[in-house]
Design brief:
Blueprint lengths: L1 H76 L3 H4 L2 H22 L1 H7 L5 H15 L1 H16 L3 H23 L5 H20 L19 H75 L2 H28 L1 H7 L6 H14 L3 H16 L3 H14 L1 H41 L5
Helix pairs in contact: 1-3, 1-5, 1-6, 1-7, 1-8, 1-9, 1-10, 3-5, 3-6, 4-5, 5-8, 6-7, 6-8, 7-8, 9-10, 9-12, 9-13, 9-14, 9-15, 10-13, 11-12, 12-15, 13-14, 13-15, 14-15
Length: about 450
């Protein structure tokens, strides 16, 4: 009976968050499609060069949102209601500091950042414009991430999903309007993305005015230890987003040398498909986080393990389906984003899709393992996995394998690095499950 209830809760939280996250990733796909259709290969290359900055902004928002919400849930369900009330205030204040840095970077450093990311020639101006608006709009993205995480942990996953979906669908509509009827080009694409985050905030913030809302801004003394704990719990989410951005920067540099702007544009197709696949995994991980934190706080170990088991089975089944579908339909999928019908781009993208997504199985498992550890107040091993995925393994593998086997080696480096991380992650998880709990 208890496990049946546990399964229902898992299905509810996971499905709602998967729908929300897929919707969230859809507006990245919409940007890719409409920019490709309206601006061609150069626009697609410019968008791909700028996406890592979006990953960084979104990663900071999730680090604070997931970290703060995890700590809030553990304290609230553990009976420490007085301390839990200050968590949201600390999260918002830390968020304001990050927002200021991003806005200043957008106002004064967009050109420099575009150059560092490899933009030059015809694509430099488009990349700079996208980055400038994206960075100035960072407060909207970060506040949206924070509110969605807290609302989800305050027993309102439906509203979190509704906010994400409303923002995503409005972005798709605004993308079309701004790029085609209004003719605003890359500026229209990024303005649509910022406005969609604002619409999502309007929806999710309705929770703040409901009676059942149990978090709010309040007067409290500064607690640096709490800030550190929150960041520690949120680092896996940050690293997951940052790793995607870092990998894109490194791979763009390698691909510029291997095949020029066409190779970068082809990778843009693969990277955006990857965003959708990883969004599904992240949606499941974010869905189980409130449940695992609750069961951890109340000492219900059997339920905690059951939720994690359901998540792993779900991710493995979905990974098999994703790889099968993308493997069989790689050509028509790539053609959707190849509006110029560039033969070289098509060939690179199709081969890349079939090789790159061999790593989907390991990537989904790694996201679940890191989230499970962080949600049960074990940030140390969770951060170890995140650092391996984001920097320690994937970057060396990209350079080594591309040097040995060219572009095919680069695509396969994703699978190899995620596989190595999964092997270490399983070992760490088994140690924390059957041995002493890590700090």
């Amino acid at each position: 009976m208890e496990l049946a209830k546990c399964r229902r809760e898992f299905a509810r939280y996971a499905s709602l968050n998967v729908m929300g996250m897929v919707g969230l990733s859809c507006y990245i796909l919409a940007d890719t499609y409409f920019v490709s259709a309206g601006l061609g290969t150069n626009g697609l290359a410019a968008l791909n060069l700028a996406i890592p900055v979006y990953n960084l902004i979104h990663g900071c928002g999730l680090m604070l949102g997931m970290g703060g919400a995890t700590r809030y849930s553990i304290l609230k369900n553990g009976g420490d209601g007085s301390e839990s009330r200050g968590v949201f205030t600390h999260t918002v204040l830390m968020g304001m500091a990050f927002m200021l840095v991003f806005v200043l970077a957008g106002v004064f450093g967009a050109s420099t950042i575009a150059s560092v990311l490899g933009a030059e020639g015809e694509i430099f101006g488009m990349t700079r414009t996208y980055l400038q608006v994206l960075l100035i709009g960072a407060p909207a993205f970060m506040l949206n991430d924070i509110l969605i995480c807290f609302v989800r942990n305050d027993s309102a996953p439906q509203l979190s999903m509704a906010a994400m979906l409303s923002g995503s669908f409005s972005n798709i509509l605004l993308d079309y309007i701004f790029i085609f009827p209004f003719g605003l080009g890359i500026f229209g694409a990024v303005i649509a993305t910022v406005m969609s985050a604002c619409i999502s905030i309007l929806v999710v913030s309705t929770h703040l005015f409901r009676r059942r809302n149990s978090f709010h801004l309040c007067r409290c003394s500064r607690d640096w230890k709490l800030c550190g704990t929150m960041i520690g719990c949120g680092l896996p989410s940050f690293a997951a987003e940052l790793s995607a951005g870092v990998v894109m920067v490194v791979w763009n540099m390698i691909l510029l040398g291997l095949g020029g702007n066409v190779a970068v544009a082809a990778y843009g197709v693969i990277a955006n498909l990857s965003l959708v696949v990883l969004a599904i995994y992240t949606g499941i991980a974010q869905g189980i986080q409130p449940l695992i934190s609750r069961y951890y706080a109340t000492g219900e170990k059997m339920k905690q393990n059951a939720v994690f088991r359901y998540a792993v089975i779900t991710v493995m089944v979905l990974s098999a389906a994703v790889y099968l579908l993308l493997g069989l339909f790689a050509d028509p999928v790539a053609m959707i984003f190849n509006s110029a019908r560039d033969t070289q781009l098509q060939q690179i993208a199709v081969q890349g899709i079939r090789l790159y997504f061999t790593g989907a199985f390991f990537a989904g498992l790694n996201i679940l393992l890191a989230t499970n550890l962080a949600a049960s107040d074990q940030p140390g091993p969770a951060n170890l996995m995140s650092l391996m995925r984001g920097f320690a393994v994937v970057i060396p593998m990209a350079f080594v394998m591309s040097r040995l086997w060219g572009m095919n080696g680069l695509w396969l480096s994703f699978m190899v690095s995620e596989g190595i991380t999964a092997a270490v992650g399983i070992r760490v998880w088994l140690g924390t499950k059957f041995g002493k709990k890590s700090a």
